Amino acid sequence: MLLLTTLIRPFKPALVSPGKQPERAPGTSPQLDPQVKYHCTASERKVAGLRVYDISPPSSSSHGQSKIGEKTKRIYYFGGGGFVAPPSKEHWSFVCEIARKTAGDGVRISMASPPLAPETRAETGSEMMEDWLKIALQDAQIDAEEIILMGDSSGGNLALCCALTSHGRGVKAVVMVSPTLDLAKANPEMREAEKLDPVQTIESSKQGADEWRGDLDGKDARISPLYADLGILANRGIDVHCVSGSYDILHPDVEQMRVRLEDAGVRGEWLLWDKQMHCFPLAWTYGLSEAREGKDWILDLLRRI
Description:
By secondary structure, the chain is an alpha/beta fold. It has helices at residues 2-8, 89-101, 122-142, 154-165, 190-196, 202-213, 231-236, 251-263, 289-304; strands at residues 41-47, 50-56, 72-78, 107-113, 145-152, 171-177, 239-247, 270-277. The chain has an 8-stranded mixed β-sheet, sandwiched between helices.
């Protein structure tokens, strides 16, 4: 990992730039092109207008089977893309790996397609996500499922914001990988972290965040969970789990959030790994040992929670 980060640092932030995106209708959930791997399949459905792609592993007959009396766990995954880009091939590989490795453990995973900026801003998008979760929770009760909201980077932000704004119970946990927690980018420690981050700059991270927040203040709790009342999660019994690396401009906010959650009485398991880059578990397909260990830590967590 040290060799990789040394080699790619001169090219930041071009390696994570979302590039030019196609025009999308405002207030809609973009249709995705599932880049499924490992003989998995993806089927599209809509929940309150939000497109959801259910991932099935090769041996689908055993997928999602749980013991008698136990609920099935349904993971809704939000792929990061700076609030402006759809999931990448690394995201699809990651969710397919989860589907494949948890087959038979009573786990089902779906890739969600939230509205994206700049066509849709956070004020409208947050309402869409809230409407979606309300129906998803109702469906989960019917199907005897416990919902886990999961995402990386901007997707981790959406997962946690959904849990905080939901009006019903039924979310079992939130799992975040290198999440965006403060759209105001107010933590002064980000400047020191920027010197170590091999893929992101503060400006590149802020660009997508500004597109998404629109007219909302960067410290609005609807979009920046670092400023939210985290006691809501404790009261609802929602655990929050997280993976983050210290070579990431978002890591100082992650450390701050961990303390705030602990003070609020929110339970969770945290993997904070020194000298790892942004979303390092998603790089497991490139044969990096640390990335594979991070990915396997998440797999073990999902089987247990």
